[in-house]
């Protein structure tokens, strides 16, 4: 479960909105049972595929498939040394749902 929490936090930090959004509370609760993370365009277009892969790898509810902390720290996204400018997230409005109202 810790890896799923890390995936959700990483997702929010990279795109400035939560990965689990829904139009009603029942649909939102379903995300806790069956997490499906989507990388919506245009918000995720400038984000590296390594970051998306890292999030997908962590976003599992099955303990046998969750990476250990050591495995997560060896992920290519965290070990790559190439530095690039990070795009400004304020340029794009975040997706809205009925719960935001």
Task: Give an account of the 3D structure.
The chain has one domain: Transferase(Phosphotransferase), domain 1 (Orthogonal Bundle). Helices cover 42% and strands 0% of the residues. It contains 5 helices and no strands. Helix 1 packs antiparallel against helix 3 (49-58). The model has no long low-confidence stretch (mean pLDDT 77).
For the structure shown, list the relevant keywords.
0% strand; 101 residues; Transferase(Phosphotransferase), domain 1; mainly alpha; 5 helices
User: Which structural class is indicated by helix and strand composition?
Assistant: mainly alpha
Number of domains: 1
What are the low-pLDDT stretches, counting only 5+ consecutive residues below 50?
none
CATH class: Mainly Alpha
The fourth-level CATH homologous superfamily is Transferase(Phosphotransferase) domain 1
- Termini separation comes to 30 Å
Strand content range: under 5%
How do the helices and strands follow one another from N- to C-terminus? HHHHH
Whole-number average pLDDT?
77
Q: Please state the overall shape, judged from the principal axes of the Cα atoms.
A: flat
Biggest sheet descriptor: none
């Amino acid at each position: 479960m810790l890896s799923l929490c890390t995936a959700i936090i990483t997702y929010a930090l990279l795109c400035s909105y939560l990965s689990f959004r829904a139009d009603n509370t029942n649909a939102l609760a379903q995300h806790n049972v069956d997490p499906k993370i989507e990388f919506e365009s245009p918000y995720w277009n400038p984000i590296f595929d390594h970051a998306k892969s890292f999030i997908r790898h962590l976003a599992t509810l099955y303990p046998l498939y969750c990476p250990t902390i050591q495995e997560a720290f060896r992920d290519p996204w965290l070990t790559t040394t190439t530095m690039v400018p990070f795009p400004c997230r304020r340029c794009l409005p975040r997706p809205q749902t009925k719960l935001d109202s």
